Amino acid sequence: FVLLAIAGLIGAVGIMTNSEILIVGAMVVGPEYNAIIAAALGIGQRDLSAVRDGLLALVSGFSAAMVVTFVFSVAVRASGRAPELFLKGLRPVSALINTPNLFSVVVAILAGLVGVVSLTESRAKALIGVFISVTTIPAAADVGVSLAFGSWREARGSALQLVLNVVLLIAVGAAGLATQRTLWRRIEAHQRSWIS
């Protein structure tokens, strides 16, 4: 929760300053893929407690990130320190985040596939985490920032982006793991019959 909250704060600064580098920094910090893959594994193994725990961790973690980001953004707005370009509506980083479209779906599906492959290949490291987080942490941060600045449409778009991508990451993860299990069983069965 602490890492998600910190990632949200870094993302908030990146959104307000239109800094892609800070958005990537937020993605590096975000640890949410563990909960995403836990829910996906739970679905594949029909373990409702694992699904529940993964979803609870995601909802709690992203809620904490949004609340902390909202409070921070309200403080920035109240202090009069919000960047001038952001206040004028020049928000290219935010616009990419809060406008879900077909490409958002494509990226989420690809990210889910990368996550499954990296997990089964024991390569679930920070770089994979960055790719996985690309559609989640920035969206959670943008919800908090947009609410603090009264940008309701942007907040709705970011919330939709977050939900869309978490659902797709879990679904692709569950399907990918199930497919791998089926393939492994067939390969093992083929190898046993070949040896016999």
Structural features, described:
The protein is mainly α. The chain is 83% helix and 0% strand. The protein is built from 10 helices and no strands. It has helices spanning 2-16, 20-29, 33-44, 48-79, 84-87, 92-97, 102-120, 126-133, 137-148, 152-195.
Compact overview of the structure:
The protein has 196 residues and is mostly helical. It is 83% helix and 0% strand. It has helices at 2-16, 20-29, 33-44, 48-79, 84-87, 92-97, 102-120, 126-133, 137-148, 152-195.
Low-pLDDT runs of 5+ residues are none
The major pleated sheet works out as:
none
> How confident is the prediction overall: mean pLDDT?
88
| Strand/helix succession | HHHHHHHHHH
Evaluate the radius of gyration. 19 Å
Helix content: over 70%
How many helices does DSSP assign? Answer: 10
Shape: elongated
Note the gap between the termini.
Answer: 52 Å
Structural class: mainly alpha
**How much β-strand is present in the residues?**
under 5%
Q: Find the count of extended strands (DSSP E, 2+ residues).
A: 0
Write the layout of secondary structure elements.
Elements: H1 2-16, H2 20-29, H3 33-44, H4 48-79, H5 84-87, H6 92-97, H7 102-120, H8 126-133, H9 137-148, H10 152-195
Helix pairs in contact: 1-2, 1-4, 1-9, 2-8, 3-4, 3-10, 4-9, 7-8, 7-10, 9-10
